[in-house]
Amino acid sequence: MKMRIFAVIAAALTLAACTTTDPYTGETRPNYTGRGVLIGAAAGAALGYLTNTSNSEEGRTNALIGAGVGALAGGAVGNYMDRQERQMREALRDSGVGVRREGNDLRLIMPGDITFDTNSTEIKPQFYAVLNDVTGVLQQYPATYVDVVGHADSTGDAGYNQRLSEQRAQSVAGYLIAQGVMRDRFYVGGLGETSPIASNETPQGRAQNRRVEIVIRPHTTS
């Protein structure tokens, strides 16, 4: 099972590096169409594995220890997260992604309108660069857990909104994993319409509620 997942992700990474040449201008640019197809496949494969294994704190802790990632302790925790916060804010400046500090945790808030088209679970091609920036910072700070949670507004069927929130979280987490962030750091899930941050009575409020959040938490000794 693991080998099949890694093969899909490897294929996605290979295609992510491919380019295409514009026949009119001669310009070389990324092949976003092909990349989107395989990245989507990688997301599904990675999350199929994640959702069929224990995403418990203990399981993730053991995985990090097994990978040689030491736990943080004492004042090192705050310092580690301070540095990660600074780099994340710099990387995501002007991206539309909110960065919030909550104690020693970081919360990235990705509005649905910049991440996905309406009723779609496929990441917008222009958002790949933002997720690549997130990947770069996560790889520099491996002593953290990564919780990816999707949210929806209350328009339409609650069951549909739940599935949409889960699938969008899967797309984001799968892309990050495909770029090389350690799979065992992740918890992935969806809360549907159950956790709004604004009123669902207005278009502006519903837009805020349609989002994917990434909570980055330190791997500590306690």
UniProtKB/TrEMBL annotation:
SUPFAM superfamilies: OmpA-like. Residues 103-220 form the OmpA-like domain. Its main location: membrane. Residues 1-19 form the signal peptide. Pfam families: Gly-zipper_Omp, OmpA. Keywords: Cell outer membrane, Membrane, Signal. It comes from the Bacteria. Transmembrane segments: none annotated. It is found in: Cell outer membrane. The keyword Cell inner membrane does not apply. This is OmpA family protein. The lineage of its organism: Bacteria, Pseudomonadati, Pseudomonadota, Alphaproteobacteria, Maricaulales.
